[in-house]
Amino acid sequence: MTTLDQLNKDGFLVLKDFYTAHQCDVLMHRGKELVKKFNFDGHPSIFQTNEQVRTSDDYFLNSGHNISYFFEKDAFNNNGVLKNDLFHSLNKIGHALHDIDPVFKEFSRSSKLKELSLKLKLEKHVIIQSMLIFKHAKIGGVVDIHQDAAFLYTEPCTCVGFWFALEDATIENGCLWAKPGGHHTSLRSWFRRKKDGGTEMHLLDKAPLSMEGMVPLEVKKGTCIVLHGLLPHYSLPNTSKKSRQAYAIHLIDQTAYYPEYNWLQRKQSQLTGF
Q1: What is the pLDDT of residue 137?
Q2: 79-103: per-residue pLDDT in tens?
Q3: This model's pTM is above 0.90
Q4: Contacts within 8 Å (CB) and 24+ apart, 71-79
Q5: What are the structural domains of the chain?
Q6: φ and ψ at 271, to 5 degrees?
Q7: Phi, psi of 23 (to 5 degrees)
Q8: Helices then strands (H, E): number in the chain?
Q9: What is the reported pLDDT for 42?
Q10: Is 30 exposed, middle or buried (0-12, 13-18, 19+ CB in 10 A)?
Q11: What pLDDT sits at residue 77?
């Protein structure tokens, strides 16, 4: 069975030793450097794990063009003061790391990724967003079950995610969960901009995403997990003493219809592949 056949069958691929431990360490070190440069001005954007109440301010809506910083939901106390140091208060950094930062750009456009994209027949796909996800020990929260295509809607559905384990991912520290073959289903919702401002989770199919048949994707550092845009997946809180950092990029076919109401808007000329 080819790599593409496996992705079409299961909706995901687990590719061990895709990147070296050193390459993962370089990316994590760069993440810490970016946090040190972050000028926290007291107006944070909070990453909501309940996708229907996601922050929709200008900082969030413009993050597709920038390197933006998103806090954990419970990062602040009732007085608006961080409960932990800045680094351990952040949920993720996104969404244009792959274009702006040279270290992330090199990682995101490696020869190995180009080779993989050809095997998966993604020649027309371009990288539209990227995220460094921290999932800190005892802090990283749940990410509810969702389909990536809900946030990067195209007609037809062309969204593909590449998720890289920068550290070992286990059940205890919040690894991904997915159902083999679960992508053979409809898109349930579409996260989009409202005409009068803000965002909404527009319901496309009333049937809830099923948790039945989900399996943990426990992987070692350096693993690449490829995710079909319709594959339901989630992650549980990190209850361990070890962090679970990961880096993710998402791609869409540049020839597909990309609505002007999608939350993430970038000029077509800014988008490139591998």
Answers
A1: 96
A2: 878 899 999 999 999 999 999 999 9
A3: yes
A4: 71/44, 71/45, 71/46, 71/47, 72/46, 72/47, 72/136, 72/139, 72/140, 72/141, 73/46, 73/47, 73/48, 73/49, 73/141, 74/141, 75/44, 75/46, 76/44
A5: 3-250 (2.60.120.620)
A6: -95, 130
A7: -60, -35
A8: 7, 14
A9: 59
A10: middle
A11: 86
